[in-house]
Amino acid sequence: MTARDEGGAKDREKGRALGREARRLMEAMGRDGASPARADLREGFLVVAGPRAGVTGVIANAPARAGAELVAGGLARWGADGRLSLTPEGAAFARRLAAPAGAEPFLAQHKPLVFKTPREGGAPVLVDEAESPLAWLARRKGRDGARFLDAAQLEAGERFHRDIALAHLLPRVTADWSGAGGGGRRGPDAMNLTETALAARQRINRAQDAVGPDLAGLIIDVCGFQKGLELVERERAWPPRSAKVVLRIALDRLAAHYGLASVARGRARAALRAWGADDYRPAID
Q1: For the chain, first and last CA: distance in Å?
Q2: Residue 54 domain-assigned (yes or no)
Q3: pTM, entire model
Q4: To 5 degrees, how large is the angle CA 247–CA 249–CA 250?
């Protein structure tokens, strides 16, 4: 048995030794953006708040004894403010327990691993979200505390990337772009493409037109081929940190093209046509 296998066996044993409530509490506190558990909101219970569907709210309630169990195991500690937070060991353990099924737990401890399906009908692939500049930006926050990319911008960029994968453009970056951005140009290679790939290329063309020629190249580099923003700035001789600003503009255009929005919008007010008493009935000619 290797050292990693031995470590995995110890984790499973430690996880089984934890009570169900203690494990649930630890997993909640280990989530991205979760706050330390508070004991002053509900008598006899610990309450954990964190983001859920873009809104911060309560994500876990656990009896106080669950927190005591984590403290006894060295996985959590009480702070001077009376709140319970995970120790470094507890946080690492929580990340390993939260590893996707089939992923290496000790790798998941250090990298945000998720399973994604890059092609329609294909098998899920384990992806390191930290490698995607969009995922990295989506986790970053500005000075106002808001995330740098909203849900619509992130989904627009990921949708464009999925089309790049479906169009079979990822393996051959330089050879195929003449056919992808040339307004429907067809050649011998296109005749061998599946209908799914051809449809994806058509969607890419429409998305590029919607974004505009001034920003289409940036969308291709960052969303399509997932180039880092620093590399993009060096290649274009842009000032540092300027690519983030331009990218947001491009993603706004892309999201509008896809019909995506983070906030539902409608008419500011409904038109008032007439007042009537409770027994009023309109006349019908």
Answers
A1: 88
A2: yes
A3: 0.47
A4: 65
